[in-house]
Amino acid sequence: MSDAKKQATIVEIARMANTSTATVSRVLSGTNYPVSPRLRTAVEKAAAEMNYVPNAIGQTLKFGKSNDIGVIIPNFTNPFYMQLISGIETICRQREYNPIFCSSNNSEAQEAANIELLRRKCVDGLIISSISQNPQNITESLKLHKNIVLFDQETTFDNCDYVSFDFEQGGILITNYLLEMGHRHIAFLTAPLEKRASRKSLYLGFQQAMANFAEATKEVLVSCDVQIDDYKIWEYENGRELARCFAKLSPRPTAIFVYNDATAISVMSQLNVLGIKVPEDVSVVGFDNILMSEYSNPPLTTVLQPAFETGAMATKIILDKIEGKNKANCQIKLRPELIVRDSVRDIR
Amino acid sequence: MSDAKKQATIVEIARMANTSTATVSRVLSGTNYPVSPRLRTAVEKAAAEMNYVPNAIGQTLKFGKSNDIGVIIPNFTNPFYMQLISGIETICRQREYNPIFCSSNNSEAQEAANIELLRRKCVDGLIISSISQNPQNITESLKLHKNIVLFDQETTFDNCDYVSFDFEQGGILITNYLLEMGHRHIAFLTAPLEKRASRKSLYLGFQQAMANFAEATKEVLVSCDVQIDDYKIWEYENGRELARCFAKLSPRPTAIFVYNDATAISVMSQLNVLGIKVPEDVSVVGFDNILMSEYSNPPLTTVLQPAFETGAMATKIILDKIEGKNKANCQIKLRPELIVRDSVRDIR
DNA sequence: CTGTTAGCGCATTCAT
DNA sequence: ATGAATGCGCTAACAG
């Protein structure tokens, strides 16, 4: 039980193979430093027998490099972030790095704690989607990290790499689609805007599209936004609450723009419970194109935000920076793409 | 840019505060060892000025304890595991441990690599859902870890703690429900059974319930199982394929038992595409009760497998073991609970 | 080819 | 109350 649990070190291997720790290290760390075949096999045999694996802590201390990448996301339960995590992990493993995932649970304090924790753990780089809009203290502590790539947002501090997404353009794109389909009275359902820059941009895009259309057509448009303040980490619960708020609106808008897919699917479900049919009575669009949105009923019209690719790109950028392959700044802004399914009714 | 990035160590702090590293350590590691107020403030000031955080690598090497918990799950994109991860992270943070999440991507080789990686990183404990049914090599390498808790499965090696779930009973529970509702011809849709012990148990429960019912009523039951072999990590794609296979079945079963919710939702969606209505034409049940299953259309009848709680319990057990609070074996088997929604038609 | 040793950052024992 | 020195596991510089 408790006998084999103590990890063997090069000292034990050296003793067993009747040689020095230096020789053991030379053999086991795979250098091409010359070692006699006799000692080499003796070391390999001893290592295998003792189930030796090199202690990464010792190596990190020696090299000043952990091969760990810190990742901070808002929460684990949103399917969008699952995809993103998956992209990050895939690239990390390919290149023999190890991601350390932390969620900030929509708490600035937790985010700050994570940033510090990852610095203590000597991560070689940090990939982060900040939940806060660059307050001074967060920015300062972020700057203490060696390599940073932001995603989901751009930033206020200079020269910081990011893989972002054109939320505003995405908002315009899908709002224009609703307008094209004849909708003139649209509700925007969202979690608190001030918490995330991306949400604000999305809302801006919505307003922009509405204003542009009104300007061009001289038509009178009506928009309203429903925002819940005590919003939950689990998007599904927010959707229920948002749908209830929506149902009280009078006169009732003909279309709903929900700030993300997970919430939109929940909104549709709750509307169904309330006897409001989608898309017959009201049209719904989401944002993200999570995997599930293809399988909702009705399948959700939305905007594609490439989660896996965002994670993969952010990881490639940070690993290239760490390995000195890329000194240039990488500020990437991915373009939105409209995904038309069946949740919007043409009311022209 | 590159000036402030080098982390300050106690050596720099000591130099700046005109004292020794020993004193710096005494102040900053929060011991109650007596230090003069003068030096104390000098050290604190220097540390703050240099944005000092203790290097966790150094501490780990010193203490022989990393405060890291390794976690290996089959994949990141199944919503069930998201919940589970969330439970693990919540407890870890509360007790000041740090989870390191790895996915084995349904690959035994990757699982083995992860087990070794986490040993190299000196995790204090390992929480794992093995994708393989305890082959010798995996079992042996697992045993090299100090503290192990399995979830999602029991195990073949003795005295190993686990937080499992009574899959067989769950399978019986929901199959009985289908039988009660008058279904006599039921299809079992699944990913490869041999890959996961839990799936096998679930299937066993299904068969058991069918056999028991036939025995008791002398009725003739028909069951068939559809299994796809080149199955994808993304459950949603499997569902599509499984639904297509199901549609070809003749005569067509009146009910479908899908091995998990994510796949079941996708199956329902694809059935809809194929013009087969749920539950009018065919009834569908899932397994897990992922968050989304409440919002599918129709809302999915399923069995509750408490993901967040499983993660939280497994974590509590392993942390108690690490801290020596609990020497006893913990072998916990959670009970299933039927969640009736609207995806099953009563055809009696 | 092989072995001895220093040093990465930290906490702690021992001496003062 | 303070500081010098040691060792955790590892690699590499250096000496042989």
List its salient traits.
DNA-binding; six-stranded parallel sheet; 3 domains; homodimer; 12 helices; four-stranded parallel sheet; Rossmann fold; about 350 residues; about 45% helix
Structural notes for this entry:
Two copies of one chain form a homodimer. In chain A, α2 crosses α3 (37-49), α6 packs parallel to α7 and α8 (167-180) packs parallel to α9. Chain A contains twelve helices and twelve strands. Helix content of chain A is 43%, strand content 16%. By secondary structure, chain A is an alpha/beta fold. Chain A has helices at residues 10-16, 21-28, 37-49, 56-63, 79-94, 108-120, 136-143, 167-180, 197-217, 235-247, 261-273, 307-322, and strands at residues 68-73, 98-103, 125-128, 148-151, 161-165, 185-190, 222-227, 255-258, 283-285, 302-304, 331-334, 337-339. In chain A, the strands form three sheets. A six-stranded parallel β-sheet of chain A has the order 2-1-3-4-5-11, sandwiched between helices. Chain A has three domains: 10-54, no CATH class; 68-166 and 307-336, Response regulator (Rossmann fold), CATH 3.40.50.2300; 167-304, Response regulator (Rossmann fold), CATH 3.40.50.2300. The mean pLDDT of chain A is 93. At the A-B interface, α4, α5, β2, α6 and α11 of A face α4, α5, β2, α6 and α11 of B. The structure holds a DNA duplex (16 and 16 nucleotides).
